[in-house]
Structures are given as C-alpha cells and as structure tokens.
Automatic annotation (TrEMBL):
Belongs to the short-chain dehydrogenases/reductases (SDR) family. It comes from Streptomyces polychromogenes. Keywords: NADP, Oxidoreductase. The keyword Zinc-finger does not apply. The keyword NADP applies. This is SDR family oxidoreductase.
Amino acid sequence: MSTAAPVSLVTGGNRGIGRETARQLAGLGHTVLLSARRPEDAERAVAELAPGVPGTLLPRRLDVTDADDVRALARRVDEEFGRLDVLVNNAAVNYDTARRAVSVDLDEVRQTLETNLFGAWRTAQAFLPLLRRSSHPRVVNVSSESGSLELMSGGTPAYGVSKAALNALTRKLADELRAERILVNAVCPGWIATDMGGPGGDPVDQGAAAVVWAATLPDSGPTGGFFRKGEPLAW
C-alpha cells in the first residue's frame, strides 16, 4: 500500500489521549496506525472511530516493551508504506499517586521506565530509518508536568521520574536529528479526564489537540521543546 497522505503511528492508541490523537490525525486526512498491546483493543477502537473521519485508521498490534514486536511493526510499515511521517510516543503506564520515592518498590519503577522511557526510545530507534524517508518527519513524546524538574514535587515517583527521563530523551534526539529536519518535541496534555487522569480534568479532545499541534508543526517549527497547549513549559 502506498499513500500520499501523511502516515502516522500512535502508540497506546486504543484509549484516552492516544485514541483521541489518532482520531484527530485521521480527521486531518492522515493514514493512522492505531496501535495497542492487544490487537482486539486496536481493532475495536478503529471500528468505533473510522466511520467519522476522512482519513484512514488501521489497527496494529504493538507492545513497546517488546523489542521484537517493535522491529516487526517497523518492517511491516516499511513494506506497506516505505516511510513514516509522524511518530507519537503515547504509550504510558502507572500514574502512581499513592507511592513515595522514599519507599516505592524499585521493581515497580523499573517496569514503569520500561514502557514510559525505554518503550518510546526503542520505538524511536526502530522507526528512525522510516522517518528519515519522510519529507516532514515529526516525533512527539507525550510527557507530563510530573516530569518537569522545575515544577516537580514529591509523589508519583515512578511516573514522574519516567517522564523527566522522557524529556531528557526528547532533548537528546532533537539535537542529534536537527540537521536532518526531524522535529522532536515533548508535550504535556495537561490534566485530562481519562482512565489514567481520573475525573475532573479537561476534556480529552483538548489534551489530544496539544499532541496533534506538535505532530503537524510546519518545517519552521520548534524542536527540542516541552510544550503545553502550544506554549513552552518549564523543564
């Protein structure tokens, strides 16, 4: 399959901000690979979203903690499209509000880092050859104010440290890829009323819109930044 439409991959796309990001990108005419650890979850989300968007939504299985799985999907995307235009590293776990850094089980922290940091890292590495074939490549790391060193406080130790590390990865990738015109940014969607965020937050479409903004930046747009609602956020 080949397409003139932008090809976008959204990890953790079956619910919450990932699902809405996939919907909004497809609403802009993108061909969106909506991925989830369980293929049936991806298929269900696509079945529910596809009738309402002009773009194409395709379900894909992807466990970002499994290196073989990530490489297999990269090979499939290469065979189907020959490139990737947008990578949205959205998959994340364990908003551990009940934990404290002084006492948290470090095995839990390692498991959180495996998805929230290393999952995004290995996915970026695996898809970088395909991004290099794009005319307008973009990488968006979905982060959180919990990862801001300036604003950081106690609590949510595994999640907060994982997002701070994801922000650091964003800066590293952006600097290394700047000369290749690959824009890499971190986005904090804000407090959003999702399964992870809980009730009381902003609507999910607002959080996803911030991600879509970074995914569709012009070539003159920023790289290596940390943003919320399109405005810089303190590192």
